[in-house]
Amino acid sequence: MDPAEVEFLAEKEMVKIIPNFSLDKIYLIGGDLGPFNPGLPVEVPVWLALNLKQRQKCRIVPPEWMDTDKLEDIREQERKLDTFTPIPNPYYMELTKLLLNHAADNIPKADEIRTLVKDIWDTRMAKLRLSADSFISQQEAHAQLDNLTLMEINTTRSFLLDSLNYMYKLRSNLQPGRSKDY
Amino acid sequence: MPCERKPMRYGHSEGHTDVCFDDQGKCIVTCGSDGDVRIWESLDDDDPKSINVGEKVYSVALKNGKLVTAVSNNTVQIHTFPDGEPDGILTRFTTNANHVTFNNSGSRVAAGSSDFLVKMVEVADSSQQKTLRGHDAPVLSVALDPSDEFLASSSCDGSVAVWSIESQTQVAQWKVLQKSSDVTNAKSLCRLAWQPRSGKLIAVPVDLTIQLYERNTWTHVSTLSDDLITQVVNVVVWSPCGKFLAAGTVGGNLLIWDVEAKLCIDRQKHEKGFTVCGMAWHPSGGRIAYTDTEGCLGLLEGVSSSSSTVQSSKATAAKEANDYDDLFDEDDDRMLDEDMSDSRSPVKKPIMEDEDDDDDDDLMPATGRPRNRGSFLDDDDNSQDPSSVKLDGLPEEGGSSAVLPAVAPVVSRPVYDGPMPTQPQRAFQPGSTPAHLMHRFMMWNSVGIVRGYNDDQDNAIDVEFHDTAIHHAMHLTNTLGHTMADLSQEAVLLACEGTDELASKIQCLHFSCWDTHKDWMVDLPKGEDVRALCLGQGWAAVATSALMVRLFSIGGVQKEIFSLPGAVVCMAGHGEQLLIAYHRGTGFDGEQALGVQLLQLGRKKRQVIHGEPLPLSRKSYLAWMGFSAEGTPCCVDSEGVVRLLNRTLGNTWTPVCNTRETCKSKSDHYWVVGVHENPQQLRCIPCKGARFPPTLPRPAVAVLPFNMPYCQTTTEKGQMEEQYWRSMLFHNHYGFLSSSGYEIDSESQAQAEKEQQELLMKMFALSCKLEREFRCVELAELMTHSVVTLAIRYASRSRRMALAQRLSELALEKANQLQEEEQEDEEPAYQSREYRESNQMNSRQAQQENGCEEEEVEEEEYPQEEQMDAEESTETRKKFLNPFKKGGKSPEKPSPKPVSREGRVNPFKVSGAGKSSGSPAGQPRTTNVLDSMTMSRKPAAFSGLSKQSKAPVLKPLAPKPKSKTQATLLQMSASKGNSKKLEDSQSEAEKVKPAPVAATPPVLKENTENKKPKTGFQLWLEENRKSILADNPDFEEMDVIKEGMGRFRTLSAEERLNWTEKAKGDSDPKKRKREDEDEEKAAEQMESDEASAKKKKPLDSSAKLSAFAFNKE
């Protein structure tokens, strides 16, 4: 999966918007949305929210976790612990990116949030690389990684798997006799 | 000689403060760590003049119109007083000055600073400075000798020094203070004070005492102390006469000594025990103003009684008291605003200056003072908790009454201690935040938001629409200073109150106007101010201070004006309705006495509510008033109780929600912005720790459900009752709307009605379960006819024959009623009907279609089921039934209805037959029916065939009402189809009409017709309209109908019958199809049931019921 695909999945997440138009319920394959009353918050998928936002048909209400205080707490937690901490939203990175890119004006302290999320992301990626490193160096057969988000898994998957494959090949070349068993 | 302590009020943000009086004693001037100097006309001045002089102000002094402040930018500045214009910098230090003071004449200023220096500057020429060096630590305080010879200073180095001004040398020094490194660490501010006039003594606060030193000898003369002082004395001040000395301590004690007698004549305690850091004696000696380190300002009153009697005559004292009265007259008016902004909280904000004096003085001329104060306290506290009022109030009362004789010896009347009148709440715009805020919502309603900004850079109004399709957002400069606004789909209405020069103005931006002049403005007559305003559809209303309501058209035409019986509180408009709340009288003990008027301003103007009292919760005031989106008046009081007008119960107000129940903490509130009846939504903004939201960050609207305070809503019964009545209440608007000629959504109305009947049926079943048969009948009385028949079936199946019998009587009654109404309808249907009991009305619509079949059902069933029943009842029934048949039933026959009738009739018949046979076989049969009902849900239940117990009977409790639902649904779809058709034909008929008819009647008619099935007469009329019109070309619609009616009556009975049949004959194919389906389903069920072979009919119906249950699931 490439990041765009993950982002596509993230667009299914629900977000609250305050529409400035009036529309009855709309019936979509994924479920019914609306009714849209001007001024009244309503939950819609991110893709629709962004679409409406781009047409200036709504204001987006930032998700609850998209708040500097909460993100700071998470960042601290993330830095303190060696393992991955639970994240408020499985698509936190994608949503932050999407919402901040398209609706920064509706999100208070957008810049701070961007930095905070980036910090969290960096911390987690560092942890991931570190654990991959120790996984390989200690030649473990398996490892357990909890609370990883899809995007995070995707960033390392191809690289890690490929390298593991190569390493396996290299190792089996070292012990040709053994490789035949397989 | 006790003096009276006034309650503290918020003056500045937390931190060091200082206070002084102006020369005449008219104003109190305070400074604080927020960098502002505030000029208060009285303690209760809610709009003090604020002068920002710097980041922090350490000390303030005022003389001869010069305001000298020690500011954190290390300067001592002058501002003019009272204008507050900067008037230059007097002197500078290397760090900030701690204390500034004037000499007696006001020609010099002395300042002591943290850089150890004391400077003396000529006010007229700041270049003439004298610097006194000698302290080894920051200077705490300076004091100038009244005769301008000496200067005293205290410092953190622990010394108090006296300097000769002339020679700039120390003439005396006492090391009496505790040393400290900095002012912030100093235990005491050690404010020194020379005795005024003679300057004979200098008072120095030393620890818990005050040392008095004599001039010239500089020896310690005496010490003033008191047991009450437990903490260091901070400030001392002399009375202007020089006989008394007041001191404020760190512990919040305030003491006054008679210096000669060394007698402590008064002891007061700061109400919260905060440190007193500033004190000033009123020039006439009557009062002491003091401030604390929390930024609050307080006043000691009645100190004059001691000093002034010595100092001056009683007359002046009395006069002074009068002045004082005047000063405080205005406070009452503001109480409510203070209430609204949560008066006791320290964030009390200055509130807009206003307005005509109150007439409390007239009420109790002589005892005006304590009375005012009493109500003041009451008011202030009643938003919090009443008990604290008493605690606070009592000592006050005691104190004041004791003082009174001294202040105004004339007073000897008994003090009134009955219920206190409440200050009438001030007029407000529903959906606005208080006017004194710099950024506020001037209006938040279902159309949009009007925000007002009034800060340094900008005085502007932003108008934003929830629905951008109405209009784009607007930004207006607010040059006129509008404070009130309303917003509708058509226009923005703004108004400002008048000033001395300018009249009160109303401005309307009529953006939906099609010509080029989008706005208009109207000046009110001189002296008349706008108090409240609102917009309706095509009109605007303004209530003024002259107790008048002025109506305008939306284009600016002045229309009716009328007087109100009392001062307006607020107004709301919706469509053609105008709702006004006003003061009906004086409330007592925290209650408001509000009245409400509801006017209909349309074509037919009338008053709907004639000034009935508006119910509010105890000790609360009106917080919001308006209309639901559907047009039902609604109000919210300060206790968060939302009430909705119940039009079907004589315009009573029903509480539908208590927003405070959903609040997490006590100080949280919901700020209501809108009420919707369908769906049932209370739109409001949750406010943490406040009554209203700030403009930024933009608050989000939350939706609260309604919840009527019915008893025992934890039980199923209570719950259903609440649901039922709530549903009834919230669907009243259909009746109102249709009666006032609006189109209504018949689908949702049917839905609502279905829901109500469903609930009734559930309650019925529940009561059956509880063996409450009487209650069952009571419930059945609320049901529509068709549902009653279902209930009968239910009752007879659960072998409650007595109940079934009573119910069938009831059903009969209902049928009769129905029939009568139908007959009535035949004729007056075309007149705009007054809204009648919605229940019956609704039921009628639903039933008319199938009412006759049900009748038939009963008819068939009665002879069997009630054989033992009295003969006569059957006869009367028949008597009633027959004419009904003629009207309704016979036309049914050619329609596909009989099919469904069969389905419905038979099951009942069987149960009846089973009974009539009286054989035990009848019982299994009934169970059979029930079993097959439950079977579709749980096929296993079929095994319980032989068991005739209550349990299986009760099982279908849930599916039961559903089956009914299905039935009504069918009917609805049918009637809908009919009405649709009708509309079509109606519009056709209108096309035929030659003369343009006024717009309303056709709409009206259509509506009324929607609600009932087409009659033969209508069909006939459509065909014959032309001829009638040809005969009488000048006829209006009404006349046509009347004429038509006359003609129709002359037709023979047969002809009429033909027409009626025609009318009934066109029930639409859709319905037939549905019914066929139902029948098919029923048939399938039937096949699946082995026991079905012989008894088609019962199975038919039961199967049908079960099918419904299945459907529902």
TrEMBL record, chain A:
Residues covered by the DNA replication complex GINS protein PSF2 N-terminal domain: 2-61
InterPro entries linked to this entry: GINS_A (IPR021151), GINS_bundle-like_dom_sf (IPR036224), GINS_Psf2 (IPR007257), PSF2_N (IPR056784)
Cellular compartments per GO CC: CMG complex; GINS complex
CDD domains: GINS_A_psf2, GINS_B_Psf2
Residue span(s) of domain GINS subunit: 65-170
Compartment(s) of residence: Nucleus
A Pfam family the protein falls into: PSF2_N
Keyword Nucleus: yes
Principal localisation: nucleus
Keyword Nucleus: yes
Keywords, in A-Z order: DNA replication, Nucleus
Regions crossing the membrane: none
Any one Gene Ontology BP term: double-strand break repair via break-induced replication
Function field: Required for correct functioning of the GINS complex, a complex that plays an essential role in the initiation of DNA replication, and progression of DNA replication forks. GINS complex is a core component of CDC45-MCM-GINS (CMG) helicase, the molecular machine that unwinds template DNA during replication, and around which the replisome is built.
Binding partners and assembly: Component of the GINS complex.
Family classification: Belongs to the GINS2/PSF2 family.
Protein name: DNA replication complex GINS protein PSF2
Protein species of origin: Danio rerio
From TrEMBL, chain B:
Record feature DNA-binding region, as residue ranges: 1010-1078
PROSITE patterns hit by this protein: HMG_BOX_2, WD_REPEATS_2, WD_REPEATS_REGION
PANTHER family tied to this protein: WD REPEAT AND HMG-BOX DNA BINDING PROTEIN, WD REPEAT AND HMG-BOX DNA-BINDING PROTEIN 1
Lineage per the UniProt record: Eukaryota, Metazoa, Chordata, Craniata, Vertebrata
Compositionally biased residues, Polar residues: 924-935, 965-977
Residue ranges of WD repeats: 9-41, 132-173
Record domain HMG box: where: 1010-1078
Disordered: region residues: 308-402, 815-1018, 1048-1113
Database matches in Gene3D superfamilies: High mobility group box domain (1.10.30.10), YVTN repeat-like/Quinoprotein amine dehydrogenase (2.130.10.10)
Biased composition, class Acidic residues, residue ranges: 323-340, 353-363, 819-828, 851-873, 1076-1090
GO CC annotation, single: nucleoplasm
Function: Core replisome component that acts as a replication initiation factor. Binds directly to the CMG complex and functions as a hub to recruit additional proteins to the replication fork.
Assigned keywords, A-Z: DNA-binding, Nucleus, Repeat, WD repeat
InterPro entries: HMG-box_WDHD1 (IPR055339), HMG_box_dom (IPR009071), HMG_box_dom_sf (IPR036910), WD40/YVTN_repeat-like_dom_sf (IPR015943), WD40_repeat_dom_sf (IPR036322), WD40_rpt (IPR001680), WD40_WDHD1_1st (IPR057646), WDHD1/CFT4_beta-prop_2nd (IPR022100)
Comp. bias (Low complexity): 308-319, 911-922, 994-1003
Ranges of compositional bias, category Basic and acidic residues: 889-904, 980-993, 1048-1069
Coiled-coil residues: none
The protein, known as: WD repeat and HMG-box DNA-binding protein 1
GO biological process: DNA repair; DNA-templated DNA replication; mitotic cell cycle
Compartment(s) of residence: Nucleus, Nucleoplasm
Keyword Nucleus: yes
GO molecular function: chromatin binding; DNA binding
